[in-house]
Amino acid sequence: MTFQAGISTLQNAPLRRASDYHSPMSFGNLARRVRDTDLPFRWRVSALRSCVQLHRPLGFQATLSYLESRAGRFQRDEAALLRALDLLESNRAAFRAELRAYAAVRRAAKGQGRRAPRAGDANPNTQVHWYWYEAPREAALHALWFWRRRRSRHAPSPDEALPELDAWVSDFLDSDGVLSPPRRELLAARLAGLEPRLRSPDLLRVVRHVQVASGLVQVFGGDGSVALRSH
């Protein structure tokens, strides 16, 4: 191509906005990058981390930690990297199925005149921040262990209710997550009292993890509907 032809090509090219060069990738595109063996391995690992940024049901760091516990050292091993992606995709697919089911339930309810969801109805739009659909108790326990380890390495939080939450999480984990019915009832009451006093969304997520891991809260699906049950 001559110099003049090159100039003409540039002049006729469509203008691109600055945002075009920084537009975020979709989950599907990022997943394809994880599987792309033509890319440097570190780029593929980075693509998996970006997938977790878009779907992080246990929080970003806790989700990465849980994936590693299930799939292996995905930062160094290709088979583990692909297993981790499969786990994340499977959970995301389950979440999206719940979204579709929830939308169908809400449409039917609105047709019957119930414009607002009932208090006991599960909402996958909020559960996505704290619920691992395919292994909820195992994932919640892992998230709690991960949170307690990180808590010991970080400066104290200004949240006044944190020490009490920390004590209940430690008590629960020290019992290996197994509580007698009276202890479970006591835990439920304490968490209910703690929740309004917690200001941080991260700490509210910890409360949900305790509730799921202890069986205080379970999400049931069956005929496509979902319901939230508290014991």
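The above is record 1. Record 2 follows with the same two-line structure.
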Amino acid sequence: FLQKSGYRRAMKNRTTATYIARVLIGMSALIAAGCVGSAEHAKSTTNPISESAEHTTRLERLMAEFWEAYTAELPTLANTFGDLSHTDKLDQMSEAAFERRRRMFDATLAKAQSIPREALPDAQQTNLDMFIWLVSNERRLLDLPTRFMAFSTLGGWHDALPQIIAATPFRSIADYDKYILRIEQVGRLADEVILLLRRGIETGFVHPCDSLRGTADAVDQLVPADIESSFAYRPVRNMPDGLKGEAPRIQKRVKITGAIKRGEII
């Protein structure tokens, strides 16, 4: 039962974070464009309207703060959506990190639920309802042991690495400095995932063996014969012409090679 139900929950969990991110982006875009709720509270300066505007501002600020905290906790997800604020970081998968996210979600829900729904314009009431539902749903997922199933044939942390490298621009030396910091964390991330997998084995919350057929082959394809063939070395091979001078190029090649070795990307 654990294997079957865990597998279904894991598949749902793979898409939930992306779904939440997409909806929050869409809601933020509407708010930024003034398309949601602006007319309702801008027509009058009476006290009820002023109160409505105040609570609308609270909601908009809370959503923006949550998105900042959310992307800081999940920098690789942020990267895939074009948010380049955290390209020097990889996700943290330790139990302490999961507990920190639970506290973040709990604090956000408490603030959202403290906003008087009836004082908001109709459109903002819908925004509040959606926001609370989305955050509550993902908060519940954090209590499930699906984190123990860190990969499958559909994907996982290992094949996310080449994807985020492909989604990251390299236009300046600063971009390469951040990249070095990011790939130096791969060893730490791998260790955290190994602990999660071991915890899954201990609790019996694992994928059915048949669902993992072919996963090892997919991982092997990411392991090249030498460092310069590594997907992690690709940004070095394709350094832009705008970064003039051989000295900076050689320096970055050496530093990134070292980071690849220390991060155990081979």
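The radius of gyration is 22 Å.
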